[in-house]
Amino acid sequence: MAPQSKSAPPHFKTMIQADVPQGRNGKHKLIITTILRDLDLLQAGSALKVPLAELAESKEKVRSALNRATRKRGIKVSTASDEKFLYVWNEAAADE
Question: 22-52: b or e for each residue (b if 16 or more CB lie within 10 Å)?
């Protein structure tokens, strides 16, 4: 079988590979990055109090995204919530 002719135009648009986005910036990135940064500064025995009204997504979706991010970082956090807030805190290390 003969190779296909190069004269046929590509079906899809093309772009320079250097301009291809690398990494995933999901819709939860801003809130998760903010929570993780605040967790790094959090004193032992304290919890973050995140207003649910400030979340663009449901608290369940934010919890799932936070769970993925903390597992990736190898840190352990706990969460709780009520009708107005999502509470997040670092779990105490076993040797503390």
Answer: eeeeeebeebbeebbeebeebeeeebbebee
